[in-house]
Specification:
It is built from three helices and four strands, in the order E-E-E-H-E-H-H. The chain is α+β, with helices and mostly antiparallel strands. Keywords: Cell projection, Cilium, Flagellum.
């Protein structure tokens, strides 16, 4: 299973697309500035990916090259974005049992 998530910053015209196969650490699928950033954003949208605008996250990931794994300090935020993207697209991770049976008073 593949998920692409884009992080875009309008002011700097930059974009970073992440790839997640469902098992390994997410990696940088594409990165660019200016017209290339716009192209990346368009491609992610056309593929049904989530576009998340976050200047700080984009700046933090800016030093990475295509194919690099995301650094551990951003695992949680990226995991939350991927999970949200999956749910928006009607996907669930392997073994996920849904929300049925969860005590809503916890």
């Amino acid at each position: 299973m593949t998920t692409k998530t884009g992080s875009a910053v309008d002011a700097a015209k930059s974009a970073i697309a992440l790839h997640y196969n469902g098992y390994d650490t997410p990696t940088v699928a594409a990165k660019g500035y200016g017209a290339l950033a716009e192209h990346i954003i368009t491609q992610v949208k056309e593929q049904g990916g989530l576009i998340h605008e976050d200047k700080e996250l984009a700046q933090y990931l800016d030093h990475l090259k295509q194919g690099d794994e995301i650094p551990e300090p951003v695992y949680r935020i990226v995991a939350e974005l991927i999970a949200f993207s999956w749910l928006l697209n009607g996907k669930t991770p392997p073994g996920w049992e849904g929300l049925e049976g969860i005590d809503e008073h916890v």
